[in-house]
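Q: For a teaching handout, I want to show students what a protein-ligand complex looks like in token form. Below are the inputs, and the small molecule is pyridoxal-5'-phosphate. Please produce the holo structure.
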Amino acid sequence: MTDAPVPDGAETLIERLGAVDARIAEVARANGRDPAEITRIVVTKFHPASLVRALRAAGVRDVGENRQQELSAKAQELDDLADLRWHFVGQAQTNKARAIRAVADGVHSLDRPRLADALDAAAGDPDAPALDVFLQINLTDDPARGGVHPDELLALAEHVTGCRTLRLRGVMAVAPLDEEPARAFARLARMSESVRSVDPSASAISAGMTGDFEEAIAAGATHLRIGSAITGPRPLRG
Ligand SMILES: *Cc1c(COP(=O)(O)O)cnc(C)c1O
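A: Here is the structure, written as tokens, with pyridoxal-5'-phosphate included.
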């Protein structure tokens, strides 16, 4: 027994977290990688703030959200947890840039110059701490999917390096449904290399979700965005 109250379901939550982390470490080592170089972000979308609180109590610092309103509301509800790091992973409208920037430590879904400009302008003070950004690449043939077309990737990377308050960390992608994740992530790794020709420090790769994080680790992912394997199934969107 512990003194702190354990929220309902937290035991299984913590068991799932432990199991996923153990698997990440195992797969990293099997691929000759140091598990310490991998950041595991828990995507908590649709789950209540109380779940984020339970995760923080279990040692989680990096959490992800895909909608600005939900991000803002949860961050406000949890503003006593000063050391949480919020990652925005969803499609972003430019008119939400200010609200996103007010809370997020990283934006994984930067896919066009106008959004870069909006996030940059949202800093207010040009000497504000830089915002970490990842260029989301569309690995599908469907332009309606989020992400920059691979042909426009380097121009976007160059644009972002000119944004004073943004720090280009690397690339991000979601594996297409109709392609082997390993193959898609191999393409992503090559695109990551070309982005490094623009900015050698932009070496991060945000890839890997519940269904494909093992393939992502094998392909060099540095940031995993894992939701349901840890949180359990998402409640239906209200
Ligand atoms: C929801 C989401 C995830 C996590 O998905 P799971 O399959 O539940 O792990 C990762 N990345 C993005 C962009 C998401 O929207």
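A: Two things your students might notice: The chain is about 40% helix and 15% strand. The chain has a mean pLDDT of 94.
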